[in-house]
């Protein structure tokens, strides 16, 4: 019976480790991959570095973005640097 108790503690520890660390990380990675897969030209994005931009061209591994309204300055980033896609939000007027 004592052997079962000494074996049970590491199993419980591994189960908690899986539930608290490994599973949430896998879920975040899957969400990131889905977001990168659904990215399209014209989307407003925020990179993982915090830069706001608009996607102007896409390839399998890169995205070309512009940060100005005229679209003259184009920068190329890895698609994996996508932080989030900005949804159309009504701008609030602050005084």
Question: Can you give keywords for this protein?
Answer:
95 residues, alpha+beta, five-stranded antiparallel beta sheet, rod-shaped
Topology:
Elements: H1 2-38, E1 44-47, E2 52-58, E3 62-66, E4 74-78, E5 82-85
Assign the CATH topology of the largest domain: SH3 type barrels
Q: How many domains, as an integer?
A: 2
CATH class of the largest domain: Mainly Beta
Number of helices: 1
| Spatial ordering of strands, largest sheet | 4-3-2-1-5
Sum this structure up briefly.
It is built from 1 helix and 5 strands. The chain has one helix at residues 2-38; strands at 44-47, 52-58, 62-66, 74-78, 82-85.
Structure description:
This protein is of the alpha+beta class. The protein has two domains: 1-38; 40-87, SH3 type barrels. The protein is built from one helix and five strands; from the N terminus they run αβββββ. Strands 4-3-2-1-5 form a five-stranded antiparallel beta sheet. A hairpin with a 3-residue loop joins strand 2 (52-58) and strand 3.
């Amino acid at each position: 019976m004592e052997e079962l108790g000494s074996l049970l503690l590491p199993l419980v520890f591994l189960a908690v480790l899986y539930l608290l660390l490994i599973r949430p990380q896998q879920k975040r990675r899957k969400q990131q991959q889905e977001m990168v897969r659904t990215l399209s030209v014209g989307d407003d994005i925020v990179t993982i570095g915090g830069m706001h931009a608009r996607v102007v061209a896409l390839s399998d591994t890169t995205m070309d973005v512009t940060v100005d309204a005229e679209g003259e300055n184009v920068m190329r980033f890895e698609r994996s640097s996508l932080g989030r896609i900005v949804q159309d939000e009504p701008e609030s007027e602050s005084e």
